[in-house]
Amino acid sequence: MESPAFYEYLSGRKNLELAARLLDKVSPREIDEILERIGLAERQHDRVRIYFDGRMKNKRLGIGRAMLDSHVS
């Protein structure tokens, strides 16, 4: 997970919602849980480009994206 690809102009939540739509079986509640677990619940509405501040938030969002996959399998 060197550099996960996200839409930088969208929020972290919107990026996860788009990914969840592709998976078709992830509820909004599960997205809330993932955001909480990766420590981005308070910043979920910030645009992703703001996450690239050297504090690993973009990596956390990548982990959240991987967690979406595990919710489906």
Mind explaining what this structure looks like?
The protein is mainly α and 73 residues long. The chain has one domain (12-72). The chain is built from 4 helices and no strands. The chain has helices at residues 12-23, 28-37, 48-51, 57-72. It is globular. The two termini are 20 Å apart.
Terminal Cα separation, in Å? 20 Å
Instruction: Give the helix/strand class.
Output: mainly alpha
If helices are DSSP runs of H or I spanning 4 or more residues, what is the number of helices? 4
Oligomer classification: single chain
Count of discrete structural domains: 1
Instruction: Return the string of H and E elements.
Output: HHHH
- So what's the overall shape? globular
Q: For the CA atoms, what is the radius of gyration?
A: 11 Å
Please count the beta strands (DSSP E, at least 2 residues each): 0
Q: Biggest β-sheet: count, sense, barrel?
A: none
Give keywords.
single chain, 0% strand
Question: Which helices and strands, and how do they pair?
Answer:
Layout: H1 12-23, H2 28-37, H3 48-51, H4 57-72
Quick structural overview:
This protein has 73 residues and is mainly alpha-helical. The chain has four helices and no strands.
